[in-house]
Amino acid sequence: MKKILALLLALAMVFSLAACTSSNEPAQPAEPAGPTEPAGTEPAQTASEPRYKEEIVIAMADEFTTIDPMETSAETNQIVQDCTHDLLTDTNLDTMQNEGELVDHWEMIDPSHWTFTLKSGVKFHDGTTLDTEDVYFTLMERAPQHSITAKYASMFTIEIVDDLTFNVELFQPDVDFNYVFAANTLAILSKEAFETMPEEEAVKIGTGPWMFEDFVSGDYVSLVRFEDCTLYPVPNTKRLVFKMIPEASARMIALENGEVDVIMTPNATDYNRLIEDPNLQLITETGRGQHMVGFNLENPDSIVTNQKFRLAVAKGIDKEEMVLAAWDGYAIPSTNIHCRDMGYYHDIEGIPYDPEGAQALFDEIGATGKTIHLVTSDAAHRTKMANNLQAQMSKYGITIDIEIMQGAALTELLSSDGHTNGVEMFIASWTPGKNADYMYRNTMTTGAGRNYASLEVPEIDAMIDAAAGEVDPAKRDQLYLDLQNYLTCEVIPWVPIAQATLTFGAAADVTGAKIHPALVHQFKEVERLVSD
Amino acid sequence: MGRYVIKRLLMMIPVLICVSFVVYFLMDLAPGDIIASMAPPDATPEQIELMREELGMNGTVFHRYFRYLKGLLRLDLGQSLSQKRPVADIFFERLPRTMELAFGSIFVALLIAIPLGIAAATHHRTWLDGVSMTTSMIGVSMPNFWFGLLLIIAFSLHHKWFPSYGADLGLKSLVLPAITLGTEQAGTLTRITRSSMLEVIRQDYLRTARAKGVSEKMVIRKHALKNALIPILTVLGSTLGNAFGGAVTTEAIFAWPGVGRLTVMAVNSRDPNLACGCIIMFSLLLNVTLLVVDIAYAYVDPRIKAHYAK
Lengths: 532, 310
Hints:
The complex is a heterodimer of chains A (532) and B (310).
Chain A: H1 2-20, E1 51-52, E2 55-60, H2 75-84, E3 89-92, E4 97-100, E5 103-110, E6 113-118, H3 132-142, H4 147-153, E7 156-160, E8 165-170, H5 191-196, H6 199-202, E9 210-216, E10 220-225, E11 239-244, H7 248-256, E12 262-264, H8 271-276, E13 280-295, H9 307-316, H10 319-327, E14 331-333, H11 355-364, E15 371-377, H12 380-394, E16 399-405, H13 407-415, E17 425-430, H14 436-444, H15 458-469, H16 473-491, E18 494-507, E19 510-511, E20 527-530
Parallel strand pairs in A: 2-11, 2-12, 15-16, 15-17
Antiparallel strand pairs in A: 1-20, 3-4, 5-6, 6-8, 7-8, 9-10, 10-11, 12-18, 13-17, 13-18, 14-18, 19-20
Helix pairs in contact in A: 9-11, 10-12, 14-15, 15-16
Chain B: H1 2-29, H2 34-38, H3 45-54, H4 61-73, H5 87-122, H6 127-141, H7 144-158, H8 171-201, H9 204-211, H10 216-245, H11 248-253, H12 259-268, H13 272-300, H14 302-309
Helix pairs in contact in B: 1-13, 5-6, 5-8, 5-10, 6-8, 7-8, 8-10, 10-13, 12-13, 13-14
């Protein structure tokens, strides 16, 4: 019996060692688990020409569901759609400016009248050439039929001037109207494709450098390069596969194993492995999402409606400590409600960390010994923020009672009945996809959809309207600066904590994988050089 | 037998309606509104209402449920709100992968459980019994996510024998997920096989068989195992049924595109039609599996066949 037991133990040890030791063999890409044969490399035309891997596999955390841009606002879908379809205007990730994508240039005649001119000779995947008829079809005929884009139809009308020029008349003046066309749901579709193909096929036709190839639900979506692309250089990679691998650890292993080339959102615990491994790289970019500790101002009986309490909390939070606790240091502490990479951002001082000042304020208003009900979602960084806040506030004699719920439940609660649920504080985040006006209008105006603090201050509503309607850039900049100071330091509907770092893991020789601060990451130019 | 099968099939109808009722109402009770989450942040309440109407999500939960039930009675599982495609299409696209994993894991489980269980019973209270029971206990207690990752690290990352994710390389892709899930199932099956065999091998007819000079191998294989099969079949049926819908962790670790992950996604995205459709189909599969197991009893035990005939 002892022999058998010894044998079993030895087997167990061998298995454990096999699992825990690393191979001494040089790293070789494993047979890929992708949907096709192992990807090779493009044959070199001449000895001096660089060679690129034919297939790039990108591992995503969430599931892709549809190629139709008008059916979804989910970032996972939009990442793929961004490769196949183009917008009239879009954010240039190098300059962070809104620039023309299909549009060559535009002119604001006045805040209600705009003229846009398309780039000439842009080809759709079906071979047709982009013109203003396609723009009119997309924005004026198809968009109104889809609830997600229907609202745009109520914003403007389009008049076609010629094949490349169209005028837009707005029902309400907007000096930043060009940002509306940067909405991913408004990707331009081919009118002719819809006239000659079934709808489910026609929606696949875009102008992007990649063409839709195949989609297997829950598994992968694959794209092939558009050889006749005129808007961008034809990609060096032949095929792009987006694989859905929900587990972060499994994504990391697949990358280390050479089965995928890029992974989205690796675990923070794997960052060092990505940095230290010479075959891998960690790609980082500060996200636009503003993580916040907010106050529900709806309940007049709650102490959080006292501005001094909010000021005390703002003074009392050590944001550096919270960044370490929630993101292992991979975030930039915020001093301003305004998101860092958006236009009109000012590096204001905000409310600096001042524990003595915070204690004095808490004592002054008799907050010491109070229990505050805080809600947040079950996302790891949010629960860590909540726990850290609880620990920090306990030093001032404030007890934070944390309630954790699912993400969708938190959004619904904060958007509707936070008051009736006794919510006093919350930890949430907000990622504005477009411009400064979009950011303030949706979070700070009375009755807005993301006004989690239930702020109802006519003065703020007026300030937002004034900034949005100001044509003079210098005056507008000043109005936004006033708004930033007023909201961050005086009203304090929420305390901005940090903007987290967004990350990709990738093979060391992968280039062109660009992180979008608002999460619609770009892979239009992704490629992997193969060394001889 | 035919009448029995028809009766059982008819009994499934109220079961499935009850399941749909419970799931639909629970989905409604859960906080989080799919329409609000689908709408852009700057959508007005009127636009959200318009979306609700367009997607058939207007009216009270009773109205919505009866609309859903009407479709269900026409064998229409409805449209997924999150994927904008028929639920049946999405489910049946992914079901074959789940079937592969379920049958693969059952194969692994049987491969481990039957010999171990028999060995434990025939060597009752010996070291072999102890090793078998310890092994089965490890199988049951070991978390899938941990064991799966360990297998990936060992056999995919270091030895590169199997892919670490996906289902594209056929049998090669199936090996690690099937072992992960099968090991857990083997734990329960080993214990059932052991206890069932222990009960049978003490019976007089086995003693008689031995006395008549039948070899021990034959006694165990032909006389004991066959009679011990009924409880094993019962557990096997429910294990297989559970594997159709309960392999969520294994599917997530190995990025296996099955229906378990689909259901979790449907619940998380608050897609009532997709969640309801998936759970109804699981329920149907479980019922059908149990029916097949019940029918299989008749072939294992002639007394049951005679009972069905009545």
